[in-house]
Amino acid sequence: MSSINELISLLSSTDRRSFISYLTSRNKRHDTRNVDLFKALIDSKEEIIKKKIGSNAYNVLKKRLYDRLVDFISTRTLQTEVTTEIEIIKRLLLSRKLFAYGKYKIAFKTIHKLEFEAIEISHYTLLNEIYHTLVEHSHHELSQDQSILFEKLAINNQNFIEQEKLNMVYASVRKAYNQAELDGSAVELGILLEASYSKLNIPDEKGYSFQSLYQLALIADIAGAHKRNYHEIELFFVDKIRELQGGVEDTQKMLIYHIDLLYSVANIYFRKKNFRLSMDFLENMNTQMERYSNKYYKRFQIKYTTLRALNLNYTGNHKLAANELDRLFNISKDAEEQLLNAKLARVTIHFQQNELELANKILVKFQRSDSWYERNVGFDWLLNKSFIEILLHIELNSVDFVESRLNSFVRKYRAHFDKTEHIQAMEFLKLVRIYYKDEFVADSSSFRETIKNSLSFKSREEEDIFLMSYYAWLKAKVNKKNLYDTTIEMMHL
Asked: Is the pLDDT of residue 82 over 70?
């Protein structure tokens, strides 16, 4: 894929319309073809434009369109991103402009507030920019004492170096996981970390802080999701969490990493089907969310409620799970993208309870392209959404939809299905195709034999929890049993 096509793939349908308006408003001549080229690139018909205007003019036009696209995406990111980091960057740029125009009083007031916010999230890169700006204007009478500023800059530089050392460690760990996937080896995460920390002279208080442990949990979660095998994930660092809690590091500054860490561990235990430990860590997470006057409660409420509901559903408490998700939707109506996991969980519960029309009512609102969902939510989510969509429409007897969806999904993601971790999913889809073409095949011994020969069932501990949910559907059809009861039975055998 060319660079300009990769940028276009980042745009939603709404973004594309906005970009066309953006181009039109900047076109000074009526014969500019940049809008035509943009539309042609979307439809893979750019050769038509090239033939009309010639190669040289086409290359110039394409380069200008690329530059406009970079400018549009960059500006839109700054306008729409609401993270603390982006907000600090925006106001840092403002403070520099204020300094340039001699508005020193408000400039110093603005930048000192930014310093406090950057310290709160331990963002040493931004702090370097903030201190650089303060040092540059430290000659002014309103400035802090220079010696204090120089000391802050020196300390921050040391913190920055320590953070970069940790980044080097995590880069090494991720590379080790990638290599292990290629050659089939195992990663002893604890041993690898100890060796890396020793090599880079990273002390335990840095290597095992809430922030660093969160990064470790994130890597472990990514590795488990990528291989669809959480069974092998080590959680040797769980004891480190207990050591940190209530200690000198358990501060408001570290709270956001503390909560994120607890969520990641709870999610890993859920994917391991250790529902008791997952709920324990979620309870701990909720306690931390309530600290400092519920400082981060809203920020984590959707993730917390969604994972709690999934745990409840897979331990037989589907009514309570459904109620908690429905309450969440009522209080988080404007957080559409953040609710994607929660809504897919609700679809799953509806489907397992044979509430097919209600499940479909939510599914039809997922109107973005598969590419958008893969890019923004991940292939794991897209796979689960597509599976349940196909199974739902089999139940709704939408034969044409099932055939079309199966064909397009498999064709588009053939490369994914050829990978080891997704081969099982492909085999399952083949069985689904056999069933929906003739549902009476479920009564035959030959179909049971086909299932046995096609699917290499792993142990309960090793099998992916969501794939098990779909296998439960097939098993329920063959055994003529209730889907939810079959699912719970498979989870707890």
From this structure: no
